[in-house]
Structures are given as C-alpha cells and as structure tokens.
Amino acid sequence: MPDLILHHYPMSPFSQKVRSMLGYAGLPWQSVTVRESPPRPHLVALAGGYRKIPVAQDGADVFCDSRIIAEEIAARAEKPELALGNLGADAQAWVARVDLDIFFACVLAAGNRTLRRKAWDSMSVPDLLRFAWDRVNMGRTATARIVSLREARPVVLAHAAQVEAMLTQDFLFGRTPDHADFTAYHGLWMIRELAESRMLQGFPRLNAWMDRMRAFGDGTPRPLAIDAALAAARQASPRAIAAEFLTNEMIGSRVTIAPSDYGQVPSEGRLAGATPTRWILAREHADVGTVHVHFPRDGYTLAPAGAR
Ligand SMILES: N[C@@H](CCC(=O)N[C@@H](CS)C(=O)NCC(=O)O)C(=O)O
C-alpha cells in the first residue's frame, strides 16, 4: 500500500492533529505543502470545492476532514483508538465541542506578536492580505457560532482547567492516547508551540501531557510535488466499495456535499457510496481522472446537485 499523501501547511492546527497521529502511529507519509488560503487548484482537481485543510490521499481516493483521515491512519496502523467512531459516546461529544468551539477559541487566543511574526516570515505580503481577507469572510459566512475575541481567552483557560482535571492518567481517557488526545492537542499546540505563549503555564499536568504528545513527533514525511500527487491519482483507480454501501437511494445521482459549520463550499459529483460514517463522491477531472472523495456524514450536508 503506498504511503498516505497529506496536503497540509505547517501552521495549520488540524494538520498538526493529523501529523501527530502519523507520528504516534509510526507511519511514513508523503507531504504536499499547500498555501494557507485558496486558490489551491490541485485540491480543486482532487476534492472539488472542499476548501479546508488537511486533505489526505491514497491514489485515487481522497479523504476530507481529519476525522476521515484518522480512520485511514487507524486502519493502516492497526490502532483502532485513533478512529473517532471507536470512542465512547461521551468522548465523541467532547471531541465535537473541542474540534469546533475550543478550536476557534484557541486560534483567536493564540494571536500574539510571535504568531504574527511567524506568519510574516512564512507568507508574502499579498498572501498575508489574501489570508486575512479569506479568514474574515470564512468567519462571516460560518453558520456555527464562533467565539468573539474577548471570549476566547477565558474559554481557553476554562478548557485548560478541564483538561488538567481530566489528566488523572497519562492521557485524557486512559493510559494510552486516542482520537480525543490528538483533538485536544492541536488547538493547544497553536498556543504553546506556535505562538510560544505562556498562557497555559499554570497547568502542570496539561504541560506534561503536551510534552508526551509532542514526543510522538510527526512521523516520517517525504516531500512530494503537486504534479506527483496528481499523477498518483491519475494512475490509480478508486478502491472498490462494498455492496452493503451501495444501497442508499441517492447512489448514482448527482449531488453536492459541503461542511455545515464553516467553509461551506460544496463539492459536486455522483454519490458512489454511503457507509454508516462516510459519503463517497465520485468526481472526474482532467488532471486526475476519476477519484472518490470521502467525507464524514456527521457535520456535512448532502443535497441533490442544483438544489443549494
Ligand atoms: N473539520 C475539519 C476542520 C479543518 C479546518 O478547519 N482546517 C482549517 C485549517 S487548520 C482550515 O481549513 N482553514 C481554512 C483553510 O486553511 O483554507 C477537519 O477536521 O479537518
């Protein structure tokens, strides 16, 4: 099986969630570095309108959303605890809140001089302006309620206190890490590692846990050119979909699938499969041939094409 290809950028917290999982799983992977904001034409070829990062790829199968990518890593590494669906209902509900409300609080609370300097150092001025404009627009069109700048710091500190209290063992829900640890890590990573903020210093157990999470590293990435990623899709065929996932009444119809919280840009194609947790969309593009794009069902809306 070829190594997973990850389309990501260094300062992206959700990409860090996946990079840390890859490190924990000890998997080699191929790294395609993308810009911090669209346009990203090669991802349009691979995934359609979906505009969030990270996106992962295995040949002609494309995985949108860190939850689907985590399922793929779990299966490859035989580490079922990395798949969100294998956690208990309470842990799943906790992850849903941390991945949305707490994520935005962390992003806003992390904004300090160090983070701005790193952004200046890694982006050109036009890219920085495009990035700022893009994120303001993304916030404006979000249907999820995003915390205000004023609320962000108290929300993060309350979350950190909760994490501190949860850490009665080495990891949040036990002696070994699971999906919830990687979810909780990436927002706090932005504050402690990326912004180098001292905001979290009053939480000793949290810091010791973050040290353990950081020690997993990011696995072994090999840089891959965009053209090579496109060629990998072109030269492969999508995986077969089991007959039990071909029974949904929309199979074969043209549909759109979009996140329902923010960055709600739809991807259009033909519904090729529906598992209990995934929608699988078949798409054609001259640069990649036929690809199957996998989305979570939870948090995404499916509609007949033309209905939005
Ligand atoms: N639910 C998605 C959220 C991903 C997400 O929000 N990623 C941020 C970057 S960390 C994003 O895409 N921002 C807009 C962009 O990079 O264009 C997931 O779990 O992968």
Could you characterize what this model shows?
With 308 residues, the protein is α/β, with parallel strands linked by helices. It has two domains: 4-80 and 221-304, Glutaredoxin (3-Layer(aba) Sandwich), CATH 3.40.30; 87-215, Glutathione S-transferase Yfyf (Class Pi), Chain A, domain 2, CATH 1.20.1050.10. The protein has ten helices and ten strands. It has helices at 13-25, 41-47, 66-77, 89-110, 113-122, 125-141, 149-166, 179-194, 204-215, 226-234; strands at residues 4-8, 28-33, 55-58, 61-64, 220-223, 254-259, 267-274, 278-285, 289-296, 300-304. It has a ten-stranded mixed β-sheet, sandwiched between helices. The longest helix is centred in the first third of the chain and has 22 residues, at 89-110. It is globular and about 55 Å long. The protein starts with a strand and ends with a strand. Bound molecules: glutathione. Glutathione binds at residues 12-14, 37, 51-53, 65-67, 99, 263.
Arithmetic mean pLDDT: 97
Strand order of the largest sheet: 5-2-1-3-4-9-8-7-6-10
- Count every helix, treating DSSP H or I runs of 4 or more residues as helices: 10
Tell me the name of the CATH class of the largest domain: Alpha Beta
Number of strands: 10
- Beta fraction: 15-25%
Q: What is the CATH topology descriptor of the largest domain?
A: Glutaredoxin
> What percentage of residues falls in helices of 4 or more residues?
40-55%
Structural class, from helix and strand content? alpha/beta
Task: Return the string of H and E elements.
Answer: EHEHEEHHHHHHHEHEEEEE
- Assign the CATH architecture of the largest domain: 3-Layer(aba) Sandwich
